[in-house]
Amino acid sequence: MAQTAPYPTVAAPYGLRPINLIGGQVFAGSTRLLKITNNYATSIFYGDIVKTVAGGTVEKDVGESTATPTGIFLGCVYTNPSTKQKTYAQYWPGGTTASDAYAYVADDPDVLFKAVMVAGTTEDGNGLTVAFLGQTMVGSNAELVQNAGSTTTGDSKVGIYSAAGATTTASLPIRVIDVVPDTANSSGNFCEFICKFNAPYAASVYSAGPPVTVTTTITGGHQYLNPTGI
Questions:
Q1: Domain parsing of the chain, residue ranges
Q2: SS3 225
Q3: CA distance 70 to 131
């Protein structure tokens, strides 16, 4: 009798991996080429999130509970300053001199992606440790954990985190919409979840007055859905 192959084991977070679009829309894995500033100093890894900054270029979004992504970084292209050859790379090496550098970004606000739940918010205050949570996470929000990527593989190590399990905190940038059953543990809990980017959260503060004034702060969520722009 043939043995059933065991489910794969997830050893650590691997960043955000686009897999689909909301509502069964046709997903072709399309990306947009977005400019990286010459000599941009921070490395960006496959599966990290990036955001658009003043001047129209993209940078690594280091936000966690208040991330404002344009999308998910899926590699880059630039002329290698050492070889003078066009290079297609898994990650952007920070500080590279290349005036023609572009990032491949999955920038659709409707993108769905897989991500790994981790046990803490810092590297490594358990930010690299896989955590298992229940089906109750579906429909709740989470924050990102910004672990440093690998220069060996070029892959991100960003994960997602929720301090108290399921949470409805409106300002968090990530919404959990489903589980990945293939990597469930024997208790029926899950370490991989299918997620989307939330819309930006607008919080209004009213003064005592008179006259009454209103201050609105917009935090988190996908940049394309932010009415104030960058």
A1: 9-22+29-198
A2: helix
A3: 27
